[in-house]
Amino acid sequence: MSEEDADKLGNDEIAMLSQKYRQGDEPYIEASKTHQEWAMLKTLVRSQHYPTESLPVLWNIINTHHRDVLPNLLILALMAVVFPVHTADVERGFSA
How far is 64 from 48, CA to CA, in rounded Å? Predict the structure, then answer.
């Protein structure tokens, strides 16, 4: 992947998530800072040669060493872990 492609990687997705979770009376994230954090994260991962083969390992490193400078991205990551990706589990719960 070229450096230009790496710089663009995920920007559209971060913009979409920022738009969605900044809405409402009490936004979950600061949208303007989230894009900056995303750019910083990509630079950190490349410059520190963090492992990218395993997302749990990578996010553990980020959470341990960079949580103070990437708070909005960590909130989005926690949401991704908690929110169901399908409704089957919820529907099973209602059936029970």
Answer: 14
Give the pLDDT of residue 22.
77
Side-chain-facing half-sphere of 71: CA atoms under 13 Å: 7
Q: Is the distance from CB of 56 to CB of 21 less than 8 angstroms?
A: no
Going residue by residue through the chain (96 aa), what tens digit of pLDDT does each one get? 787 887 889 999 999 888 888 766 778 888 889 999 999 999 999 999 999 999 889 989 999 999 999 999 999 888 877 777 777 877 887 777
Residue with tokens 């900056």: 36
The Cα–Cα gap between 66 and 59 comes to 10
Considering Cα of 45, then 48, then 51, then 55, what sign does the dihedral take? negative
Spell out the residues 6+ positions from residue 42 whose beta carbon is closer than 8 angstroms to its own: 6, 7, 9, 10
pTM higher than 0.85, yes or no?
no
